[in-house]
Amino acid sequence: MISQALNDQITRIGPNTDAGNVLRHYWQPAALSDELTGGFPVAVNLLGERLALVRSESGAMSLKTRIVPEGEPAAYCPTPQEITIDPTGATYPAHEIKGAVFAYMGPGDPPEFPNFDCFRAPDSHVFAFKGLWRCNWLQALEIGIDPAHASFLHRFLEDEDPSDGYGKQFRDKAAHTDMPMTQVLREYPRPEIQVDETDYGLKITALRHMENDLTHVRVTNQIFPEAICIPMSREMTITQWHVPIDDENCYWFTIFTSFNNPVNKDLMRDQRLKEHRLPDYAPLKNRENNYHYDPAEQETLTYTGMGLDINVHDQWAVEGMGAIQDRRQEHLGRSDVAIIRYRRMLRKAIADLAAARPEDLPMQGRADVAAILGPLSNDAIAPTENWQSASHAADIARRAECPWDASV
């Protein structure tokens, strides 16, 4: 448990807040390229500021302060005709890449983009999407760095044919086996979790020890300050930012990256638009309709009774904590080691900025940010005695067969 003052410090992100200052030192996803239609400014609510995304005649983009229509809620996206740009306000640089527009709202020149797989894969091999969650960004991030939650929150009581699961997480077979991932997660629910600090944040390894001296190795990552990179399947990874709209609402922005085949963008977009509405990308299943909870389904098919889309499971869990989770009453355990390490990293970054040491923030003090590659995000089943080298070898083999330069 932590104090209210500390909880406020690590969750609130408006201008001149401690956590907000840290996030402003990094590029933040502001909009999807799909939203840039008609040549009009696009309303963007980001880090507690009301902004408009504007493209100049030269094609360059920037975020400008906008005058807010009276009564507009924080997460509402008005039509372009309702946007009025304040010429005396702040202007922030923006950069479009791989289906998303990133903005830099911090001091000085923007940092380079790391050379993560999602940024260097060709456009044919990436797909970007987002979704609205009615909760603080930190609890949205923390569910993504908890490897144990998948065995419970995403527990499927029946295993479907993995070949029918394109574009859906946990609808694959575990590498080097015929066992569906849903079965692995269900039958081995208490992983051993190891956390290592990296140039970009944290590497999180979940070890599910199986019979016959085999171990399922699942490597995920926390990319500082508020992103994760996780395996979606052997074919794809998910790089996902948990971006604050304000203190009580956030968007998850995801870039799906395929190692081998081009992504089927139309199918992936259609899959997700069946679960979200436009223009605000709010999920159709939400608190107001009890996330379409079905007790009959809960008895026979899923742990939550809320359908097969795992985003809905996560949404229910993080929104159920309240707009800002009250961490004064929490009791973290052994499986929360990544959450504990991340909070220490965030608090150190806050302290480094307070001491005027921005170069000590992850990825901020190096001249070769573009040399940060990867990261490794995959699952594999390996002999327990050499799981580490076998997991690394599985990633290298996948990259060697890749039609684009995925070498590390």
TrEMBL record:
InterPro entries with a match to the protein in the record: LigXa_C, Rieske_2Fe-2S_sf
Domain of life: Bacteria
Residues covered by the LigXa-like C-terminal domain: 103-358
Chloroplast among keywords: no
Entry keywords, A to Z: Dioxygenase, Oxidoreductase
Keyword Chloroplast: no
GO molecular function ontology, one term from the record: dioxygenase activity
Protein name: Dioxygenase
